[in-house]
Amino acid sequence: MTREVLVYSDKQALVEAAFASILDRIRSAIAQRQTCSIALSGGSTPQPLYAALAHVDLPWHQIQIFWGDERYVPASHPDSNYGMTKRVWLDLVPIPAENVHPMPTNLASPQLAADEYDRQIRANFGLEAGSIPVFDIVLLGMGDDGHTASLFPHTAALSVLDRLVTVGEKDGQPRLTVTFPLINQARSVIFLVSGASKQTALAAVFALTGDETIYPSRSIRPQDELLWLLDAAAADGLVT
Ligand code: 6PG
User: Fold this and answer.
1) CATH number for the domain including 18?
2) Is ligand 1 within 6 A of the CB of residue 45?
3) Is pTM beyond 0.90 here?
């Protein structure tokens, strides 16, 4: 694993850097393998990045879009990660509908939805049970508590290592989330972290020792590349 930590003066510079980094990795994946698979993060930080990607000329038919986590709400709900991404980006580009893979949030239970998404991922990658797909890019955010995707502190999802997708939980509300094995198999994992509220968790995640059940982002150790893109507000005082 190669780990790189890059700090930018403010959120706009951070988003511009993330835009360039992701474009570079998308084009490289397509040049090498004629396809690029991306698992997107949710939350608010990536929204301007997604809006910027709506204005790029890419071979959209060669790009497969997945999500790393989702709130268990309809796409029309204001909390939907898919709904946000669709509104600011995917509705504005000619990506084939079959290339966009939202997490199902309309099944009888979150567990059934997690099982179904696990199946969809395996089908898309042509994988047998037990194999782990190699995503080209997994984009992650980090919460003020050090969670990533919907892998929250002290939750059962942190221990799910035999599935690609499981049910997370935040404040009693179910979430769907990819698991650590899926994330850590990726060619490139990119964290996008902005704002002073992330300082404490970042320091704990970067500390030489610490409890991964308290700060789950500590468990992100991809096979190949781990790229931390931070703004100065989030990185203030950080020893990298
Ligand atoms: C989600 C996310 C989550 C997010 C962090 C940071 O669905 O909320 O995927 O992991 O990336 O909570 O969220 P912000 O970018 O809003 O700070």
Assistant:
1) 3.40.50.1360
2) yes
3) yes
